[in-house]
């Protein structure tokens, strides 16, 4: 998903998934986790990224932590970090916000490598990564 920034450079939300994970996303009625980059808001010299997350499984996710990479405006890795999306109740939307010590126009891409931690009673193996759906609503940053 491409996001237009005031600099004219795109901000992408992407995922690197195992081959089996990509196939799961194509299966109809397959429970998945959906992460949407909802907003990128400048906060001084920092950038606050807001995500809307939905757990499509029939059971709660007790803890979901995703390995995430931010790329700078030169396309280089600026930060590799773990984002703790905390608990994700089954079938419910949750909003999670994270602030980074980079200006928003200095971030060109957000890459989610996959789940570092995914816990919950009755969850299948790979429940947080297999079939992960990513999207974005951010069209343009004010500034």
Main attributes of the structure:
6% helix, 143 residues, elongated, mainly beta, 9 strands, five-stranded mixed beta sheet, four-stranded mixed beta sheet, disordered N terminus
Which helices and strands appear, and what pairs or packs with what?
Blueprint: E1 2-4, E2 10-15, H1 19-26, E3 33-43, E4 46-55, E5 63-72, E6 77-84, E7 93-100, E8 107-119, E9 133-136
Parallel strand pairs: 2-8, 3-9
Antiparallel strand pairs: 1-2, 3-4, 4-7, 5-6, 5-8
Strand order of the largest sheet: 1-2-8-5-6
**Continuous helix count:** 1
Taking the sheet with the most strands, its summary is: 5 strands, mixed
List unreliable stretches of 5+ residues: 1-10, 15-26
Radius of gyration: 15 Å
Q: H/E order of the elements?
A: EEHEEEEEEE
Description of the molecule:
With 143 residues, the protein is mainly beta. Helices cover 6% and strands 51% of the residues. 29% of the residues are buried.
């Amino acid at each position: 998903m491409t996001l237009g920034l005031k600099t004219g450079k795109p901000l992408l939300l992407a995922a690197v998934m195992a081959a089996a994970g990509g196939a799961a996303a194509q299966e109809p009625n397959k429970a998945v986790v959906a992460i949407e980059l909802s907003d990128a808001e400048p906060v001084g010299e920092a950038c606050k990224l807001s995500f809307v997350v939905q757990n499509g499984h029939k059971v709660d996710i007790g803890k979901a932590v995703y390995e995430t990479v931010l790329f700078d405006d030169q396309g280089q890795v600026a930060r590799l970090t773990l984002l703790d999306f905390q608990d994700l109740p089954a079938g419910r939307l949750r909003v999670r916000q994270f602030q980074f010590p980079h200006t928003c126009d200095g971030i060109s891409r957000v890459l989610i490598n996959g789940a570092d931690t995914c816990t919950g009673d009755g969850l299948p193996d790979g429940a947080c990564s297999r079939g992960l759906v990513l999207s974005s609503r951010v069209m343009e940053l004010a500034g």
